[in-house]
Amino acid sequence: MAEGETESPGPKKCGPYISSVTSQSVNLMIRGVVLFFIGVFLALVLNLLQIQRNVTLFPPDVIASIFSSAWWVPPCCGTASAVIGLLYPCIDRHLGEPHKFKREWSSVMRCVAVFVGINHASAKVDFDNNIQLSLTLAALSIGLWWTFDRSRSGFGLGVGIAFLATVVTQLLVYNGVYQYTSPDFLYVRSWLPCIFFAGGITMGNIGRQLAMYECKVVAEKPHQE
């Protein structure tokens, strides 16, 4: 071998899961697909809880699955979950404030469990009035953010997601797509923004955790060259 030439190093094995994918565009697509299916699964489970409690009512002609849910609900929730999960780490990078609080899968799974518990409380726990229920769910949702997030960007995005999702839901109910029993906040229930806020924080945590593997690939690339 001529002087000055260096032997090209062999391929280096990357981290687990999707960190083995070196293309950022493919990595982004894989994370989006994973987030989509997580959102679909959570939508099926949580919507089943709401329907069993008769919190939401769909017209008979749109009941199209074994979970007694309108067919369009899971895909819409999956798409929203993918957007939210990809948006959180993107905002973190844009602000130059990488989120490092409780960055492990055990914490993410606990966050998901608390989110499901908040939804379960909204459907199963009986309160004297909707104000007590709304205040309780608001406290639980903020507690979820404080326990698993604690970032200003996470709180701001959660509030924005809750506002936008509530407006969209109001429009859907207004146009007769489905309805809520005993609405007390225009056409929906007053505690609904709390659920959307907690859902945004939860999907944001999942998205941030998945994005950590992409960061590992970027960090390892200079060493492979």
UniProtKB/TrEMBL annotation:
<keyword id="KW-0446">Lipid-binding</keyword>
<dbReference type="GO" id="GO:0140311">
    <property type="term" value="F:protein sequestering activity"/>
</dbReference>
<dbReference type="Pfam" id="PF07281">
    <property type="entry name" value="INSIG"/>
</dbReference>
<feature type="transmembrane region" description="Helical">
    <location>
        <begin position="131"/>
        <end position="148"/>
    </location>
</feature>
<keyword id="KW-0153">Cholesterol metabolism</keyword>
<feature type="transmembrane region" description="Helical">
    <location>
        <begin position="28"/>
        <end position="49"/>
    </location>
</feature>
<comment type="similarity">
    <text>Belongs to the INSIG family.</text>
</comment>
<keyword id="KW-0882">Thioester bond</keyword>
<dbReference type="GO" id="GO:0032937">
    <property type="term" value="C:SREBP-SCAP-Insig complex"/>
</dbReference>
<keyword id="KW-0256">Endoplasmic reticulum</keyword>
<dbReference type="GO" id="GO:0006695">
    <property type="term" value="P:cholesterol biosynthetic process"/>
</dbReference>
<comment type="subunit">
    <text>Interacts with SCAP; interaction is direct and only takes place in the presence of sterols; it prevents interaction between SCAP and the coat protein complex II (COPII). Associates with the SCAP-SREBP complex (composed of SCAP and SREBF1/SREBP1 or SREBF2/SREBP2); association is mediated via its interaction with SCAP and only takes place in the presence of sterols. Interacts with RNF139. Interacts with RNF145.</text>
</comment>
<dbReference type="GO" id="GO:0008142">
    <property type="term" value="F:oxysterol binding"/>
</dbReference>
<feature type="transmembrane region" description="Helical">
    <location>
        <begin position="155"/>
        <end position="174"/>
    </location>
</feature>
<dbReference type="GO" id="GO:0032869">
    <property type="term" value="P:cellular response to insulin stimulus"/>
</dbReference>
<keyword id="KW-0753">Steroid metabolism</keyword>
<keyword id="KW-0443">Lipid metabolism</keyword>
<keyword id="KW-1133">Transmembrane helix</keyword>
<feature type="transmembrane region" description="Helical">
    <location>
        <begin position="186"/>
        <end position="206"/>
    </location>
</feature>
<dbReference type="GO" id="GO:0036316">
    <property type="term" value="P:SREBP-SCAP complex retention in endoplasmic reticulum"/>
</dbReference>
<dbReference type="GO" id="GO:0006607">
    <property type="term" value="P:NLS-bearing protein import into nucleus"/>
</dbReference>
<protein>
    <recommendedName>
        <fullName>Insulin-induced gene protein</fullName>
    </recommendedName>
</protein>
<dbReference type="GO" id="GO:0032933">
    <property type="term" value="P:SREBP signaling pathway"/>
</dbReference>
<feature type="transmembrane region" description="Helical">
    <location>
        <begin position="69"/>
        <end position="88"/>
    </location>
</feature>
<keyword id="KW-0472">Membrane</keyword>
<comment type="function">
    <text>Mediates feedback control of cholesterol synthesis.</text>
</comment>
<keyword id="KW-1207">Sterol metabolism</keyword>
<dbReference type="InterPro" id="IPR025929">
    <property type="entry name" value="INSIG_fam"/>
</dbReference>
<keyword id="KW-0812">Transmembrane</keyword>
<dbReference type="GO" id="GO:0051604">
    <property type="term" value="P:protein maturation"/>
</dbReference>
<dbReference type="GO" id="GO:0045542">
    <property type="term" value="P:positive regulation of cholesterol biosynthetic process"/>
</dbReference>
